[in-house]
Structures are given as C-alpha cells and as structure tokens.
Amino acid sequence: MLTFIFGILGICFLFIVPTSVGAQCPVCIITVGGGMLIAKKLGIDDFLVSIWISALNTAIAFWLAPKIKIKLLKNGHVLALLLFATTLLYFQFTDQIGATTNSLLGLDKIVFGQLIGLIAMTLGSHLYLFLKKRNGGKTIFPYARVVFPVSLVLLATLIFKLIFKL
Q1: Which member of 5, 14, 27, 108 has the greatest number of CB atoms within 10 A?
Q2: Of the candidates 39, 73, 57, 44, which has an alpha carbon nearest to the alpha carbon of residue 121?
Q3: Residue range of the domain that includes 46
C-alpha cells in the first residue's frame, strides 16, 4: 500500500514540477520512428522514407551528443555523421542499396534520401540557432527549435515528391 501511495505522489509530482524539454526530445524521436514504420508499410517511396530516417538519426545525434562523455562525440555533427554512416552500412549489409532500378538522378534513392535528410535537419537546427542569436538570445516563438528542422525536412520531402512524382 505504501508503494502505491508513493507511486501516485510521484506521478502527481511530475505534473506539478516544470521540466525542460530540449529539441528533438525522446517523445518526438519515438513519434517519428513509429511514423517511419507506418510509411514503409503503406508503400511510400524509399527515397522519401530515407529522408525521414536520416532526419531521425540527426535528431537523435543532436539530442544525445551533449550527454556523451567522449569528447569527440560531444559534437552533434560528428555523431550525426557517425549515425549516417552506420545507417548506410546497415542498408548495405541488408542489400537494400545498389539496385539499378532504385535510383533518382543517378544516385541510389536510399543514399540520396539519407543525405537530403541529414542536410535538411542540420540546416534547420542551424537556422533556428542563427535566428535566436539575432533575436538577442531569445527564441522567436515556442517550439521554434523543433519547428525549423522539421519544417525543412517536410519541405524537402514535398519538393522531391512533387517534382519527381514519388
């Protein structure tokens, strides 16, 4: 009974005490990951799915980097590139890369999509930081840190979907 009471008090405490939420929080990461699985099951093109997989990896890297004790990996860019490389290795080992029928502009759709996702998410994060700095260190609007990267990834997805009819 005592455990139950402390459990209820602990849950209530979580709702009373404010906590900070960083960009690319775990909830966002899980949501994007679940969305990727659904997209793949629905038959969405590999290129478009790859953009979002890479964006997810980049979000994880930027979120995780400050928590890592290894100095080299504390840089979110280095960790993002490491996750990019390991994801490509996974696709290579599972024979999902290299099919001549699965290319866009002469590049493998999965590799190209991974690159676009990495660039869009990184640019979105840097755009947010740039605008925050110009605004005297204050955020432009609530959740801007999440809105800018996700918006650029969404914009890249829509551009490629509409131009190449994917």
Answers
A1: 108
A2: 57
A3: 24-164
Q: How do residues 95-136 score in pLDDT, each as one tens digit?
A: 878 888 888 898 999 899 999 999 999 999 999 999 999 999
Residue 96 CB contacts under 8 Å (≥ 6 apart), including other chains: 46, 110
Give CA separation, 94 vs 84, 87, 89, 98, in Å: 16, 11, 9, 11
The three-class DSSP label of residue 37 is helix
- Kindly report whether the global pTM for this prediction surpasses the value 0.90: no
- C-alpha separations of 48 from 140, 158, 164 in Å: 29, 9, 11
Domain count, the chain: 1
Q: What is the largest CA-CA distance in the chain?
A: 65
Q: Count the helix, strand and coil residues of the chain and give each as a percent rounded to the nearest 5.
A: 75, 0, 25
For residues 13, 17, 22, 26, the Cα torsion angle rounded to the nearest 10 degrees is 10
Q: Is residue 29 part of a domain?
A: yes
Beta bridge partners, 103, equal 108
Is residue 12, in this structure, part of any structural domain at all?
no
